[in-house]
Write a structure and sequence with these properties.
Blueprint (H helix, E strand, L loop, with lengths): L1 E5 L3 H12 L3 E5 L7 H4 L3 E2 L2 E2 L4 E2 L3 H19 L4 E9 L3 H10 L16 E10 L1 H14 L3 E2 L9 E2 L4 E3 L2 E3 L1 E4 L16 E13 L8 E4 L1 E7 L2 E5 L13 H14 L4 E14 L5 E4 L6 E5 L5 H18 L13 H4 L3
Parallel strand pairs: 1-2, 1-12, 2-8, 6-14, 12-19
Antiparallel strand pairs: 3-7, 4-5, 6-7, 9-10, 10-11, 13-16, 13-17, 14-15, 15-16, 18-19
């Protein structure tokens, strides 16, 4: 069996690695010079949804699988990827404090939240994945091992056959699209209701160290980088979708920073990227309703570093072993959009 993965972001990397674990012949087709959300992703994982202090969906199931996959990738690539962090939410009001104090002591919240201290609510089991380094190192590994097709890709070049899919480099039994925000251009899966979102972050250098020794959140995450440098992340825009940094987003990040700290600073870096989001906040997995040699793994959103390891395994087991997909993530939940499937 030969598998072709389109895209070398976090989704494509995870699918390829799952296939290799099962001794499947897999290649990734990706233009490594094309803008990529994985390349500039902050990569933070956080088990708590701050708006109503609910826990992230399936968090107890996601975290063990997440740690296992990133640990295996660290060993394979000889790099450090997964950094546990101390992380705290700024408590904005008495009502929010009351809600925190109500939720925190009870199972399962107590495993992920500590009591409020000095105006902050500590979050446990948070961390950051170095997505930039993961993508760079994995692309290098693929290239060295003859598994990377590094070129521009057009959906029009796919030739579907009775047995698979042909491209210039050969024939494959299955093509799995892990094409991130570019999925809206995919003629086979553009019936899925994607909502593209642009996120931006900045790095500031302060005149003196901030009075924090952990990552703090006040709508914006303030992430210590060392040397009086801090990353402020990130914004969300569904209107401006051009991969370019914007002054409006920078000012939003600065405004949230200045609500916490009055230490003077200089902006030294500003980046932007797009990612595909989904209205029901559940990823898209599954085979095409008509063309069974085509599949998709997408819609992972802002929780991508947690969701991707678990659901890449889930999809590969579905494709190779016939295991049923969870209804919540199966693309056929939108079958009526395709034509009443």
């Amino acid at each position: 069996m030969k598998i072709l993965v389109i895209g070398s972001g976090l989704a494509g990397i995870s699918i390829a690695e799952r296939m290799l674990e099962m001794n499947i012949d897999v290649h990734i087709l990706s233009d490594t010079q094309r803008p990529s959300s994985t390349r500039i992703a902050t990569g933070m994982y956080n088990p708590v949804v701050f708006r109503r202090l609910n826990l992230s969906w399936m968090i107890d199931d996601l975290l063990p699988v997440m740690h296992d996959l990133y640990s295996a990738l660290e060993k394979k690539l000889g790099i450090a990827l997964n950094e546990p962090i101390r992380f705290a939410k700024k408590i904005p009001s008495k009502d929010y404090a009351t809600l925190w104090q109500k939720r925190q002591p009870d199972e399962p919240h107590v495993r992920y939240m500590d009591p409020i201290h000095d105006g902050y609510g500590p979050v446990k089991q948070a961390g950051m994945i170095d997505c930039t380094e993961l993508q760079r190192a994995y692309q290098d590994w693929l290239r060295t091992n003859g598994r990377l097709i590094d070129r521009n890709f057009s959906y029009d070049e796919l030739a579907l056959t009775d047995h698979g899919v042909k491209i210039e480099e050969g024939e494959f039994d299955t093509v799995i699209f892990c094409d991130g925000p570019y999925a809206v251009e995919n003629p086979y899966f553009n019936w899925l209701p994607f909502n593209l979102c642009q996120g931006e972050w900045i790095i500031i250098e302060t005149e003196s160290p901030l009075p924090i020794d952990q990552v703090v959140n006040n709508k914006t995450n303030v992430i210590p980088l060392g040397g009086n440098r801090y990353k402020l992340s990130s914004t969300y825009s569904w209107k401006t979708l051009d991969w370019q940094p914007h002054e409006e987003a920078k000012q939003e990040l600065i405004k949230n920073y200045e609500k916490l700290f009055q230490v003077p600073y200089t902006v030294v870096e500003h980046e932007a990227a797009q990612r595909p989001t989904v209205a029901d906040r559940r990823p898209y997995l599954g085979r095409h309703p008509k063309h069974k040699q085509l599949a998709i793994f997408n819609g992972l959103g802002s929780k991508g570093v947690m969701l991707t390891p678990y659901f890449s395994k889930h999809l590969v087991e579905h494709l190779l072993e016939g295991k049923e997909l969870m209804e919540e993530v199966d693309i056929l939940r939108h079958g009526k959009r395709f034509g009443g499937v």
